[in-house]
Each structure stands twice: as structure tokens, then as C-alpha cells.
């Protein structure tokens, strides 16, 4: 019987353990925390957006880095496969807005409990409070490396026919994802793409955002420009914070903020109206209330929390009477409503990032087995690989699919 050791008891590691043991291997899952799925527990604000109900073909468009690498994995284990596994273990799913699947119970802990039941039945050995310190390898006469075992925190060095690296990335390090897999890989001379925080809030210059902190904008457009080039253009909801901007739209935009250079976030506060329509609307509002001050008139177009900052950006006084607003002033206001720029100075740190972009270079792994090309018997799955996607359950599906394929292949070969 093949002895497989899996490093990391997150979604990828647990799924790899299930598929490897169901393919006939003797499986040990090692987790340094006192429990499995610590990050899984906090996903989807504690409700766990397990996957997405969209057809699998649509998943590729939601993957930001290396979507093509996922072709076999997404085919080997789909969103509906995951739904079935959880249902079989007494954790049915429901579909919500954006085709997001959540457990009916709204509890992420039920997802981990269901996977634990399955692993128990499959005879997976689980070693908690145990950290893997090193991968042990040997070289054959031709110089090709092969994994032979691991060194654990208790000093033991168990032998392994195959090892699956499912150590995650380095976002939310308090959950145990501290980038250990990258260090193992570097020691074996594998290529690692610089890990950076992604799906993360953005910091902005100045104190305008702080002045508007807590204010949420719904149904706005948001465009991210890097050195004058549009890298992302979306529509939805965002939020001002004490350091800059956050919310779903900004988190998604952050996936495309991956180069140094001048970064500007441009908010379209009225995406449903063209500049001409907006000007007509403004003209009407001004004509209806000629004695009112500008700041009160523009209040009809903006949330109140934004008015002082918006007015301060214009060249004319916020106290100017509506009847004294000229065509040029209207034009200035319309341009700002359609394109309210914020200079972005950086990303928030890993501690606040939902996902890590970068990681083990996928060119070094076979997409049809998840095995490392340079080190025989070494497999990788989940966020430790240079794979990341938008929110909506896609990142977890990457972990489920790659974990399943790595486990199955490791047991078979
Ligand atoms: C706040 C938050 C909310 C999220 N919500 C969602 C969501 O709703 N839907 C979604 O699709 N995605 C979500 N994600 C992303 C998702 O959680 C990750 O994509 C997913 O957890 C990656 O799974 P993984 O198994 O690859 O890694 P991880 O979940 O990071 O698991 C890796 C495990 O390996 C262990 N480990 C690391 N090094 C060692 C070592 N040396 N020895 C032993 N064990 C080790 C760690 O302790 C950890 O338990 C969210 C992420 C965050 C931070």
C-alpha cells in the first residue's frame, strides 16, 4: 500500500486525503494547528462560500492567475462533485446571489465536520499540533530528485512514497498559512513567483477617504488604472475606510494591481447616466432650486457623507447659489461625478488579504497530475500554487479540485 503524507489540513489537504485514501493509499494528514480548517472556518464571514453554481467552463474566466493550468483539475472534480460529497456527509448546500453555494446551516464548521467524517470513514490518519519542518529527498544516479519522507516538529522522520504540499499561501497568517510551502520549494530549487496579497483593500493618498470612512457606495463603477492603462473596470459596491478603500469592487480590482507604477482608482458615481444625461439632470435640479447653495443641490446626486469632499475638489465655492452656477462649473461637476479619482499608494498587508497571488510556479508541475516535474513523488495543491481567483467560491473550488487530483494521482502512480 502506498504511503502518502499530506502537509496542511486546509481545504486542499483534506480533499487530497479523501481522494488518496479512496484510491487505496495509506494516508496521513499533518496539520500544525490544534484543529483542521482554521482558515476554512472564517471563510464567507463564517458561512463558507464553498463553491459556485456556474457551469465549470465559466470558472476559467474567474481565475486570475494561470487559469489554463486548472483544465484537468476542474474536469476531474467539479463544483457539483463537491456539492455531492458534502451532501453525502450530511451538509447540504444552498445557492445564493451570484450563484454562490453556502451550507444550508450557514456554518462553515459544518463543512469541516463533514470532511472529517469522510476522512474518518476512509481511515485517514490525522496528526494535529504537528509541524512539518523539512522535506526529505534523495537523488537517483541520473540526478533526478525523489521525495522520501519528512521531518516533523517532534523530531521523527517518517518515510513517504509521496508527499502532497497543501500548506496554503501567506494571507491571514494567524490561521497557520505562513508560507512554509514556499520555503520547502525554494530549498528544492523550485521556482516560486513572489507572493503578494490579493483580494485585499487598497490604501489611498491623503485624508479624503478617512473623512468618508464608513460610507458605502452601491451601484458605482470602479476603474483601476496603472500608468494610465485600464487594468480593471467593474460595477458594484465599495466602501471608504480610514486608510483608503475596500468592499467587493475594490477587492476584485486589487487582483489586477500587481505592478509598481502610478495607480489610480476612478469611481463613476453615476454609471447609469451619460455625461449629457447627467448635465440635463443637474440643470433641472439647479433650475428648480435657484436660491439654494450648491452643496445642497448636489446632495440630490451624492450620499451626504461624500458632499464635503466632493465639493472641496471643485474650483468653486460649495456655498455658491444654484442660479450662479455656470455651464463650465456644471461641466466640472459632471466630470467629477463620472470620474472621481483616488491615488492608490499600496495594498493592505497579508494579514488582511483573502488570498495570496503568486506561489509555486505552475510550470514546474504537471497540470494533469499535480506532480512536481523536478522532484518525483512531490505533489502540490491549493493556494500554495500560483493560482488565485475572484471571490464567489472560486478559490475554494481551486483547493477542492487540485486537492482531489493530487490525491488521486499520488495514490495511483
Ligand atoms: C477571511 C477569508 C475569507 C475567505 N472566504 C472564502 C470564501 O467564502 N470562498 C472561497 O472560495 N474562498 C475564500 N477564502 C479563500 C480560501 O480560504 C482559500 O483559498 C483556501 O483556504 C485555500 O486552501 P488551502 O488548503 O490551499 O490552504 P489553507 O486553507 O491556507 O490551509 C493550509 C493549511 O496548512 C497548514 N500548514 C502550513 N504549513 C504547515 C506545516 N509546515 N506543517 C503542517 N501544517 C502546515 C496551515 O496551518 C493550514 O491549516 C477566504 C479567505 C479568507 C482569508
What order do the helices and strands come in, and which of them pair?
Blueprint: E1 3-7, H1 11-22, E2 26-30, H2 38-42, E3 51-52, H3 56-59, E4 63-65, H4 71-76, H5 79-88, E5 93-96, E6 100-103, H6 108-122, E7 125-127, E8 132-139, E9 145-152, E10 162-165, H7 180-187, E11 192-198, E12 202-204, H8 208-211, E13 216-226, E14 229-240, E15 244-246, H9 248-254, E16 263-268, H10 275-288, H11 294-297, H12 307-312, H13 327-338, E17 340-347, E18 355-360, E19 375-376, E20 378-380, E21 388-389, H14 394-412
Parallel strand pairs: 1-2, 1-10, 2-7, 9-19, 10-20
Antiparallel strand pairs: 3-6, 4-21, 5-6, 8-9, 11-18, 12-15, 12-17, 13-14, 13-16, 14-15, 16-17
Helix pairs in contact: 1-6, 1-14, 10-13
The structure holds flavin-adenine dinucleotide (FAD).
Flavin-adenine dinucleotide (FAD) is lined by residues 7-13, 30-33, 38-40, 42-44, 48-49, 131-132, 166-168, 171-172, 176-177, 180, 354-355, 382-383, 393-396, 399.
Q: Bound compounds, please?
A: flavin-adenine dinucleotide
Gyration radius (Cα, Å) is 25 Å
Q: Regarding CATH, which class of the largest domain?
A: Alpha Beta
Low-confidence stretches: none
Helix fraction by DSSP (H/I, runs of at least 4): 25-40%
CATH topology of the largest domain: FAD/NAD(P)-binding domain
Strand order of the largest sheet: 12-15-14-13-16-17
- Tell me what the CATH architecture of the largest domain is: 3-Layer(bba) Sandwich
Total of DSSP H or I helical runs spanning 4+ residues? 14
Number of strands: 21
Name the structural class: alpha+beta
**Biggest sheet details:** 6 strands, antiparallel, barrel
What's the overall average pLDDT, rounded?
A: 97
| Euclidean distance between termini CA atoms | 12 Å
CATH superfamily of the largest domain: FAD/NAD(P)-binding domain
Strand content: 25-35%
Amino acid at each position: 500500500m502506498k504511503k502518502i503524507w499530506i502537509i496542511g489540513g486546509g481545504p486542499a489537504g483534506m480533499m487530497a486525503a479523501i481522494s488518496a485514501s479512496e484510491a487505496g493509499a495509506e494516508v496521513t494528514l499533518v496539520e500544525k494547528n490544534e484543529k483542521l480548517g482554521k482558515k476554512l472556518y472564517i471563510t464567507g464571514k463564517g458561512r463558507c462560500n464553498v463553491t459556485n453554481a456556474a457551469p465549470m467552463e465559466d470558472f476559467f474566466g474567474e481565475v486570475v492567475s494561470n487559469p489554463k493550468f486548472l483544465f484537468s483539475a476542474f474536469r476531474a472534480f467539479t463544483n457539483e462533485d463537491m456539492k455531492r460529497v458534502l451532501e453525502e456527509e450530511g451538509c447540504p448546500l444552498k445557492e445564493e446571489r451570484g450563484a454562490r453555494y453556502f451550507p444550508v446551516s450557514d456554518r462553515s464548521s459544518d463543512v469541516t465536520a463533514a470532511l472529517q467524517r469522510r476522512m474518518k470513514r476512509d481511515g485517514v490518519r490525522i496528526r494535529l499540533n504537528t509541524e512539518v519542518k523539512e522535506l526529505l529527498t534523495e537523488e537517483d544516479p541520473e540526478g533526478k530528485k525523489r521525495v522520501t519522507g519528512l521531518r516533523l516538529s517532534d523530531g521523527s522522520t517518517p518515510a513517504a512514497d509521496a508527499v502532497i504540499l497543501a500548506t496554503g499561501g501567506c494571507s491571514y497568517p494567524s490561521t497557520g498559512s505562513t508560507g512554509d510551502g514556499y520555503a520547502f520549494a525554494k530549498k528544492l530549487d523550485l521556482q516560486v513567483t513572489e507572493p503578494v496579497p490579493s483580494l485585499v483593500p487598497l490604501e489611498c493618498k491623503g485624508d479624503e477617504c478617512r473623512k468618508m470612512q464608513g460610507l458605502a457606495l452601491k451601484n458605482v463603477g470602479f476603474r483601476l488604472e496603472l500608468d494610465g492603462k485600464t487594468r480593471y473596470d467593474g460595477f458594484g459596491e465599495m466602501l471608504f475606510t480610514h486608510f483608503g478603500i475596500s468592499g467587493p469592487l475594490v477587492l476584485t480590482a486589487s487582483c489586477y494591481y500587481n505592478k509598481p507604477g502610478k495607480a489610480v482608482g476612478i469611481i463613476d458615481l453615476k454609471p447609469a447616466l451619460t455625461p449629457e444625461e447627467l448635465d440635463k439632470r443637474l440643470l433641472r435640479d439647479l433650475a428648480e432650486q435657484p436660491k439654494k447653495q450648491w452643496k445642497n443641490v448636489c446632495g440630490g446626486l451624492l450620499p451626504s457623507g461624500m458632499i464635503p469632499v466632493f465639493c472641496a475638489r471643485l474650483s468653486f465655492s460649495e456655498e455658491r447659489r444654484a442660479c450662479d452656477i455656470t455651464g463650465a462649473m456644471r461641466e466640472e461637476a459632471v466630470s467629477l461625478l463620472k470620474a472621481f479619482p483616488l491615488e492608490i499608494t499600496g495594498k493592505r498587508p497579508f494579514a488582511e488579504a483573502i488570498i495570496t497571488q503568486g506561489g509555486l510556479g505552475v510550470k514546474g508541475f504537471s497540470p494533469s497530475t499535480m506532480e512536481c516535474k523536478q522532484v518525483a513523488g512531490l505533489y502540490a495543491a491549493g493556494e500554495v500554487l500560483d493560482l488565485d481567483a475572484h471571490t464567489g467560491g472560486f478559490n475554494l473550488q481551486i483547493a477542492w479540485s487540485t486537492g482531489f487530483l493530487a490525491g488521486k494521482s499520488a495514490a495511483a502512480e
